[in-house]
């Protein structure tokens, strides 16, 4: 790399610079794009763009029947384009309506519409502009303000992990939205309820659950939260965050410089979860082993530091507790609600319970 290029890369603005200059168009644009990778706690434009690029490649490979496509993106529904349209539109509408909250100078959960109700509504109700637009609208009108209220009036005052407010808002708002959709079905569909796809994703084939499948599943878990669940999407996400970290360690993951520790804990959590719950993958076709990747582990590392004790404990406890709790809740939801509500509910409960326990056991204070 030439000296000029290296010097330019090292001037890439870090997270604190972005947060301090959100009144400037470029910093605000970086924040909005970074929201796409926020669910993995990376918060940077490079992993966000990598995630979307990898997912687009996976969708193309799926549409063309390529053998290297990996796990069929968005569970083989073929709805990935509509899912992304609705999620991105929900994100943009959220910033139009609620972007002013960033003037407070503190972190705010503006990302939540991208990884919640809009995508779930597309998966549950099917393709079409009516579903995509109304899902995005519900995301901006219900999910984002619900998470903002919980984060600012519950998590911050009580010093709870903000992830509990993020996902708690997703769960509460999604329940309300699906009740409205059941009451007014023309909001999202014009087909009989019996013709709707199942809420729980099912793989189209029954693979051998050996070593290679396990490694692929761990990788795919990194892109499960935005409803992609594909290795190429995950590779794009991880490549982007590692590149961002190499360019400016203070850029991704809120400038914590804990990117490596977070990824290590996330990988360990998914690996343990996939191994322990492999029989569930085999019998059900899908199981929420991704949950600690986007909740317990990164929240613990950011709150308590990147020691090996924090990494290992958060990975083990998250992998053992979160997936079965999520599955138990999802199984008890009515058929007109997407099962992801159980997943985000589990994220909230497990994060609130596990992080104080780790703090007690390890004595971590940072």
SSE sequence, one letter per element? HHHHHHHHHHHHHHH
- Low-pLDDT segments: 190-204
User: Could you name the CATH topology?
Assistant: Ammonium transporter fold
Distance from N terminus to C terminus (CA atoms, Å) equals 37 Å
Q: Compute the gyration radius: what is it?
A: 19 Å
Instruction: Outline the biggest β-sheet.
Output: none
The CATH architecture category equals Orthogonal Bundle
Number of domains: 1
Whole-number mean pLDDT: 92
Helix/sheet category: mainly alpha
What is the 3D form? globular
The DSSP helix count reads 15
Find the CATH superfamily: Ammonium transporter AmtB like domains
- Tally of DSSP β-strands: 0
